[in-house]
Amino acid sequence: MAAWGWKSGARGHASLAAVAAVLASVACISGAAAQDEDSSDIAGSLQDAIVGTWSGQASQPDTDPFEVRLTFVSPRGGVSRYPGSPPCGGMLVGDRKGDTYDYQESITYGGTDEKTDGCLNGTMKLTVNGETMKYEWSANHNGQDYSSSGELKRTGGGARKKR
After folding, report:
1. Of 103, 154, 155, which Cα lies nearest the Cα of 163?
2. Hey, where are the domains in the chain?
3. Predicted model pTM
4. What topology is assigned to 52-156 in CATH?
5. What is the pLDDT along the chain (163 residues), one digit of tens a residue?
């Protein structure tokens, strides 16, 4: 007989392997449960009313409406897409400021650096009320002020929480 009462030979090794497998399974299950609890705590703290995809229309004074799509993975930033003509989009960096969200938009494709009728970098002020977002955008380019506003609806993902 070997130490700790284990028999040597194939049967002893099989028993040892079975016990090791059970212990490993228990450790994995315990670790996974702890990880799930930690992940839900992290995910819970990252959820915010703005997280998700928003689509709708906005317009500038005296112009036809244009399509707007915004996607946020956190309240600190996201991406903008304007699929109309000219198509363009960019990165949004900012955060929540009280009841609104303020972002700097940097156009990364389809901007005025690529074509004369391209989109402008600007500032966005967004207000979320349930599944609806108030969209306000402004910019100054070559001394001229520009603005647009509209309403977007949640079209995907997100916390779906009222704030």
Report:
1. 154
2. 3-46, 52-156
3. 0.69
4. Porin (2.40.160)
5. 333 333 344 444 444 344 344 334 333 434 444 444 444 434 444 589 999 999 999 999 989 999 999 999 999 999 999 999 889 999 999 999 999 999 999 999 999 988 888 999 999 999 999 999 999 999 999 999 999 999 999 998 765 444 4
